[in-house]
Amino acid sequence: MSAPVLAVRGLAAAIGHQPVVEHVDLEVPAGSVTAILGRNGAGKTSTMKAVLGLITRTGGEVELAGERIDGFATHRIVQRGVGYVPEDREVFATLTVAENLRLAERDASPRRELVAELFPDIIARSAQRAGTLSGGQQQMVSLARALLNENRILLIDEPTKGLAPKLVTEVADALARAAEVVPILLVEQNLQVAKRLAQSVVVIAGGRTVHAGPAAEFFADETRVERLLGVHGEASA
Amino acid sequence: MSTVVLLLITGLGLGALYFLVASGLSLIYGLMGVLNFAHGSFLTLAAFLGWETARALGADSWGALAAALLVGAAAGALVAAGTELLLIRRLYERHIEQVLVTVGLALASVALFDGIWGTDPQFIRGPAWLAETTEILGARIPNNRFLLIAIAILVLLLIVLFLRFTRYGLIIRAGVENRSMVTALGIDVRRAFTVVFAIGGAAAGIGGVLASHYFGYVSPQLGGSLLIFAFIVTVIGGLGSLPGAAVASVVVAVLQQFANFYLGGTGDLVVVLLLAVVLLVRPRGLFGRAA
Questions:
Q1: Which domain holds residue A166?
Q2: Which of A161-170, B74-83, B101-110, B178-187 has the lowest mean pLDDT?
Q3: pLDDT at A232 over 80
């Protein structure tokens, strides 16, 4: 396996005085998708936010392509090449689709052609306010914002949450295409999507890494899936 | 009829003043969550510096007034940006400390202005036309009201154009909606904070120079007295909403004028009652978005 693009060791984080991440280790190898799995409240989203500096890190190390970034402010981490697609999309509702995308452009030559190819529907709605889009379309805008720049890695948090089954497939297709150009750290409750996209998985429970390994191996062991995630391996939460 | 016209246009003039102060307050709160009690100090300083500039150039000329407005805007912008960089930047998300620092700055600056310019009001002069009146539908309207209204509309237009067509404007509009997501797009939102403080300070500075013409004097308490109503306007309009600040400025000022005339000088009381009603019925203000 190649050197990791992102390496997290012993990460701990808190919101206020409340610890939400206790000790998380994970690695995202180049050219791959790593899925963070776990039950509700396990600390998956908090881990992602802690990597980005959106919540207070209280311990551990985060390395991006060999460079320590755990002391950096969020905007500097992102500028180093970390794209973020948050849970619940967080598009700017009062801005148009075009403005949402323009705001996200950091590079001198943003990848507008790739975005137009992946998401023709939202490009056709450039002048529409993002708040008036459907949940699936907002997810596309959120993904497009992250794909516009030449990132080293994308952190994508529950991209299929709350979407209709048809849209889940569309988003998963888009993620598969995105994974061809950039490594992804993915938080995903829908195990079918995780199974389809991920080459490796990290399972978090109580803010701690309790399992890390190849995805195929993990999903093949249904007893372990049920024990760690509380769902059957074929289920989609 | 003439009384109604007089009260209406005078109310619009006062509303223009409120807007010049409230626009900055609203943008600053909307983007940064900072309640800036020092905003009135920017206005007062600009009013004094504008007055000094006009005196030096010959207070009766339009050129002196234009220079006073430019100096006022520049002084307001510089002092506001300096306040953000030196004091507020260290205190983001620490709301109690922000209030303490900005209230302290407001109190200290009044003492400073007392020390420099004295406690008595300094009566000012301007171009002769401003002191004259124009008859509209039988009402004789002081001309300075027209200047106030025109400049407030111009400032509103400039801010809207800035917000709509510049990169910083885009960042500010997005930041008012979701500041942490702007940061998560790799944008150093602190620069936008300084820009917003500077814009708000410039508008307050222009407001300071115009307020001295509206009231006919400049005094160390000028900013503080306007700031109270600007805060009321900001809350009624909806914290963070520029259109809200514009509409609420007009509503509050016109209501104040009518209540003062027809309800025995109860304008201030009526405005506070309006604030209470808005807070009870629509706590986020007329144009504010739900949290």
A1: 4-229
A2: A161-170
A3: no
CB contact B164 to A (< 8 Å): no
Q: Is B288 a domain residue?
A: no
Q: Nearest chain B residue to A90 by CA: give it.
A: B181
Residue B199 has pLDDT above 80, yes or no: yes
Q: How many domains does chain A have?
A: 1
Percent of chain B whose predicted confidence (pLDDT) is above 70: 99
A234 within domain boundaries? no
Contact A95 B174 (CB under 8 A): yes
Nearest residue on chain B to A88, alpha-carbon basis = B181
| For residues B70-89, average pLDDT | 96
Residue A31 lies in a domain: yes
Q: Which residue, A40, A88, A43, A45, is CA-closest to A237?
A: A40
B171: distance to nearest CA of chain A, Å? Answer: 7
Q: Is residue A1 scored above 70 in pLDDT? A: no
Position B289 in a domain: no
Q: Looking at the 3D structure of chain B, how many domains does it have?
A: 1
Q: Determine the Cα–Cα distance for residues B77 and B204; give it in Å rounded to an integer.
A: 8
Chain A, window 49-88: residues with a beta carbon less than 8 angstroms from a chain B beta carbon: 52, 54, 73-75, 78-79, 84, 86
pLDDT tens for A147-205 read 999 999 999 999 998 888 888 998 999 899 999 989 999 999 899 999 999 999 999 99
Position A62 pLDDT exceeds 90: yes
Supply the range of the domain harboring residue B211.
Answer: 2-281
| Res. A237: pLDDT tops 80 | no
What chain A residue is nearest to B289 in terms of C-alpha separation?
A94
DSSP output for chain B: -HHHHHHHHHHHHHHHHHHHHHHHHHHHHHHH----TTHHHHHHHHHHHHHHHHHHH-TTSHHHHHHHHHHHHHHHHHHHHHHIIIIIGGGTT-HHHHHHHHHHHHHHHHHHHHHHH-SS-EE----HHHHSEEEETTEEEEHHHHHHHHHHHHHHHHHHHHHHHSHHHHHHHHHHH-HHHHHTTT--HHHHHHHHHHHHHHHHHHHHHHHHHHHSEE-TTHHHHHHHHHHHHHHHH-TT-HHHHHHHHHHHHHHHHHHHHHTTS-HHHHHHHHHHHHHHH-TT-SSPPP-
pLDDT value for A184: 97
Provide the CATH number for the domain around residue A164: 3.40.50.300
pLDDT at A222 over 80: yes
